[in-house]
Amino acid sequence: GTMSGRIINNTIGTPNGTFNSAQAQTGSSSFGNGIGVFLEKGAGTGSLTGRVLIENNTIADVDAEGIRLRSNNTDSSGLGIARLEVQLNNNVIRDLGPRGTGGIEAQ
Question: Which of 30, 62, 65, 70 is most buried (most C-beta within 10 Å)?
């Protein structure tokens, strides 16, 4: 199967040049990502494809990754395929907290 989506023109946090720990703990459970896209395929043959456009977002005051992308195939037989296709355009990631490991993580 195929799924698609768009994440466009969002402001997450308060982009003001400094990390705000109080802001980071609001709505992100004190170690959340700014934007997370996860594709999880269960057991069985066939393929699962996700297509996502992430564009014109400003992400600040998160204490993890600004954008986290993950595709996972839990089928141990190796017969299925899980593919995540992401297009990133004009996103700003700033003011990450001390536990932030990077602007974008893909797994």
Answer: 62
User: What are the pLDDT digits (tens) for 32-91?
Assistant: 788 999 998 887 778 889 999 999 999 988 888 899 999 887 767 767 788 999 999 999
d(C-alpha 33, C-alpha 37), whole Å: 10
Helix/strand/coil (H/E/C) assignment for every residue in 21-75:
HHHHCCCCCCCCCCEEEEEEECCCCEEEEEEEEEECCEEECCCCCCEEEEEEECC
In one-letter notation, the amino acid at residue 49 is T
pTM, to two decimals: 0.84
CA distances (Å), 17 to each of 48, 50, 61, in order?
40, 34, 10
Question: CB count, 10 Å around CB of 23?
Answer: 19
- Among all chains, which residue has been given the structure tokens 């037989």? 77
The tokens for 57 are 């977002």
